[in-house]
Amino acid sequence: MSGVRWFGGLVAVLLLLVGLVAVPPAAYAQDANVEPNVGPSGTEFAFFATGFDDNEQVGVWINNPDGSISEIIDEDGDEFVVFANNEGRADWFTTVTGPDGFYGMVARGVDSGYEVVIPFQLSSGADAPVPPPPSPDVLDANVEPNAGPAGTEFAFFAEGFESGEQVGVWINAPDGSVFSVLDGDGDVLALFANDEGRADWTVTSPSDAPPGFYSMVANGLDSGYEVVIPFEILP
């Protein structure tokens, strides 16, 4: 991916050119994940998410494929309780049963309000990579389209930032490399949330972008609020 340029810009500013420059992957650790990311009904999934307050209680629930929400109940029939550790990381295991489809595990800090959505899939068939979650109605961030060939323009949005807050954005590539988004002058893209805490921007993938699953990361520079928006470059 080194040397590849991406073209995009803010929704409100036409023809703004942005580029990507490789930075060390260690500079930006993945903030949430699930293992495995796909399995049949009855699979036990292991989740983690970082970015919460130290020792903060974290509420978790599941967004179902039909748009409904499922609470997570412990073996005693009580609401499942998760706490972050001293470094703000929460780890938990959940056995999920249900119809085949794409689900979202939501984790939200009770005090901080910090929230992440971790997509995963129930599938009775062969293992397959999980594409980006398809329903923007149950997410605080999304991309349209969520998959397309090299050269596709992707339109992103993310909510939950502070009013007028500056938002840093970068892309995690399939090979583990990380690309910082720059404007046409070679400076870091100046992206700001609106009065309601929402940021909108677009990126056009290069014509020679390798296929695979990418992640657009958006981080509030003041609040530390961060979301990860997966998308796919098709062969």
Describe this structure in words.
The protein is mostly beta strands. The protein folds into two domains: about 5-30 and about 135-235, Immunoglobulin-like, CATH 2.60.40.1930; about 40-120, Immunoglobulins (Immunoglobulin-like, Sandwich), CATH 2.60.40.10. It is about 0% helix and about 45% strand. The strands form four sheets. Strands 2, 13, 15, 16, 17, 19 and 20 form a seven-stranded mixed sheet that branches. Strands 4, 6, 7, 8, 10 and 11 form a six-stranded mixed sheet that branches. A four-stranded antiparallel sheet has the order 1-18-14-12, with no helix packed on it. A hairpin with a 5-residue loop joins strand 10 (about 100-110) and strand 11. The chain is globular.
Task: List the SSEs and their pairings.
Elements: E1 7-10, E2 18-23, E3 32-35, E4 38-39, E5 43-49, E6 57-63, E7 69-71, E8 82-83, E9 90-96, E10 101-109, E11 115-122, E12 141-144, E13 147-149, E14 153-158, E15 166-172, E16 178-183, E17 191-192, E18 199-204, E19 212-220, E20 226-234
